[in-house]
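Sequence, please.
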């Protein structure tokens, strides 16, 4: 796939190519190995996904606040989850739960055919939409809704990626996974006991692999804000 985001000149001083190269080198050393994923992280301007006051930290391998008690995920975990999703081959339809800043969405949009992204906080979703438009990434459709329900009308999906920790795997997401499809999801409480899971839908049923310990904000339910 060849969807290069438009280069932006905003904040270019603080976000020099060298700073970005250092991040890519670090992600490689930490174990990311898919060259397509590393290349997409290299060319995606993460500084546009955080407040200008934090732009100088955008190429550190760390989560950062994006308002509404939410965070933009750490680049390593964005890369790791994307690699897991893509490991079995190219994907045409991917459902993302938890758009947040839209950074993970932008990374996915450059690697798969179409992304469907659900977010429960409308203000975050509006900003994410603007950013993806600015980057001319047009293969993304957004929905304001509750990720526990997935996006039934457009199912099934070859890949589903959840960027907030669920207390358990939502049944709706399992139901909306296509045969051979892959679900990458952090599961666990609001402390240090979360695990990243990879669930694949095979002919005989769901196969569940427990991967890394992780730390995400919770997948909330209830009224939308
Ligand atoms: N991938 C995002 C991470 C954002 S943090 C980024 O890199 O910016 C997790 C996001 O999940 C938050 O925006 C939060 O509002 C959203 N979220 C939490 N519970 C949700 C739910 N039930 N449905 C949809 N989105 C939810």
């Amino acid at each position: 796939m060849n969807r290069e985001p438009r280069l932006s000149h905003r904040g270019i001083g603080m976000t020099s190519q060298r700073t970005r190269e250092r991040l890519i080198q670090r992600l490689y050393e930490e174990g990311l190995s898919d060259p397509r994923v590393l290349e997409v992280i290299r060319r995606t301007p993460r500084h546009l996904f955080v407040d200008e006051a934090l732009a100088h930290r955008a190429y550190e391998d760390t989560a950062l606040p994006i308002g509404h008690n939410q965070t933009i995920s750490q680049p390593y975990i964005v890369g790791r989850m994307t690699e897991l999703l893509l490991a079995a081959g190219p994907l045409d339809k991917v459902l993302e739960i938890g758009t947040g800043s839209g950074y993970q969405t932008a990374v996915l949009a450059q690697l798969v055919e179409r992304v469907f992204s659900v977010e429960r906080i409308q203000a975050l979703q509006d900003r994410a939409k603007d950013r993806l438009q600015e980057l001319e990434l047009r293969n993304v459709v957004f929905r304001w809704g509750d990720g526990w329900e997935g996006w039934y009308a457009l199912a099934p999906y070859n890949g589903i990626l959840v960027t907030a920790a669920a207390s358990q795997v939502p049944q709706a997401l399992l139901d909306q996974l296509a045969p051979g499809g892959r679900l990458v999801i952090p599961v666990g409480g609001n402390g240090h006991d979360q695990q990243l899971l990879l669930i694949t839908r095979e002919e005989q049923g769901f196969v569940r692999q427990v991967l890394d310990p992780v730390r995400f904000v919770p997948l909330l339910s209830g009224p939308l804000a």
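DSSP finds six helices and nine strands in the chain.
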